[in-house]
Amino acid sequence: MKNIGCTSFLLASLLLALLPSSTARDTITPTTPLSGDQTLVSSAKLFALGFFTPAGTSNTYLGIWYNNIKTQTIVWVANRDSPVAGNSTDAILSISRNGALIITDRSTNLPVWSSQTTSSLATPLAQLLDNGNFVVRNVASGDNDFAWQSFDHPTDTLIPGMKIGVNFDTHINRTVTAWKSDTDPSSSSYIAAMDTNGDPQLYFWSGLKKIWRSGPWDGLHFSGVPETTTYIQFNLSFSFINTKNEVSYSFNTQNSSIVTRLLLNQSGHVQRAIWLWDTERWNFFWQVPGDQCDNYAACGPYGVCDPNMSPVCECVQGFMPRNPTNWALMEGKDGCRRKTTLDCRNGTDGFVRVSGAKVPDTAQAVVDFSLGLDGCKTRCLMNCSCTAYALANLNSGSGCLMWVADLVDMRLYTIGGQDVYVRVAAADLGKHSV
């Protein structure tokens, strides 16, 4: 009897070994939709797509998360503002004959979300790629010929290869919007978006209120994020595109073991996180606002915020507090005003240098890459509306950035920052003047 049992076990094992192994699929087609209890897994098993129901709720959403990280971390949600009112068994994802993705509530047989693809595809399929992008394309089309892609519609997270910014050709504005809570992925009032006015920069908004500003791209990093240059240890690279066709920011990593993301959280912070494989947790090592001086316009017009001083606000040389009473009470939002009126007509004005600074808001600034720093100074003096100038590109040491409005949202850094030359009257020139 012992021999018979052993033989049966060996036969069963052999039969199981001969059966074809099941592999997770990464595509759906018009004839193979995705039901609520199924998931798509990218070919290298880096990302998964499927339906999830947040703890303590009865709503179901279609999302993308890291497949090889135990803690489910959602990086994209399709129907964040149109959930299926039930558990995942009530949901199904399909793709129509013309290539539109559709999420249907099976209990009502009604669609709750659609990708609203405008182009008609002959043989459409939707595929989850290894970079976390969920794309719609023709079966026979090229690898980058997408009729629709999730990367064009971020939710609260940027992952490598995903952009934030505006594509003027496709009229797509990629913005990032925080979840309302840990269990509610619907859109909150916190939004991060690219402003293409003047010298482009990123803003973080709470409704209509500006919370934080990245500053313009200075050839190395955003002016308001000088610590970016230290991220070389993570094998991160950064891309800023500023052309007539597109203004966008993205990041990438050359090491596949480095898993990092940018998150706009529901508490009102933009955070960068990196996954620690040994302890299996996220390390949030950077966030903005990070200190009082990160808050937009903390010291008002012509005020400079220095987090290492108390009080943190001071006026640029040649300026004095606009509201001395509040200024003495450490409330600097009213900013500063000139001590002496400018005398542009007689050409007696000069400049004082603010070093190690985040440049002022560039929404109304002018950029001329044909000029160097000396030419920028001359051009600014000739323009009576010019209030300050600086280098536009620190990497090449060229380009002229000029302000033609009040200088707002300046701060100082212990390491990093750049020189800003502020226009003042001759009577206010001193040891920091140029």
**CA-atom Rg in angstroms:** 27 Å
The CATH H-level homologous superfamily of the largest domain: Bulb-type lectin domain
Q: What general form does the structure show?
A: elongated
> What percent of residues are in strands?
35-45%
Brief summary of the model shown:
With 434 residues, this protein is mainly beta.
Q: Can you offer a commentary on this structure?
A:
It catalyses: L-threonyl-[protein] + ATP = O-phospho-L-threonyl-[protein] + ADP + H(+); L-seryl-[protein] + ATP = O-phospho-L-seryl-[protein] + ADP + H(+). It is a single-pass type I membrane protein. InterPro entries: Bulb-type_lectin_dom, Bulb-type_lectin_dom_sf, EGF, Pan_app, S_locus_glycoprot_dom, SLSG/EP1. Keywords: ATP-binding, Cell membrane, Disulfide bond, EGF-like domain, Glycoprotein, Kinase, Lectin, Membrane, Nucleotide-binding, Phosphoprotein, Receptor, Serine/threonine-protein kinase, Signal, Transferase, Transmembrane, Transmembrane helix. By secondary structure, the protein is mainly β. The chain has 2 domains: 266 residues, Bulb-type lectin domain (Agglutinin, subunit A), CATH 2.90.10; 131 residues, Hepatocyte Growth Factor (3-Layer(bba) Sandwich). 7% of the residues lie in helices and 40% in strands. The protein contains 3 helices and 34 strands. It has an 8-stranded mixed beta sheet with strand order 26-25-33-29-34-31-32-30, covered by helices on one side. It has a 4-stranded antiparallel beta sheet with strand order 1-10-11-12, with no helix packed on it. A 4-stranded antiparallel beta sheet has the order 2-7-8-9, with no helix packed on it. The termini are far apart.
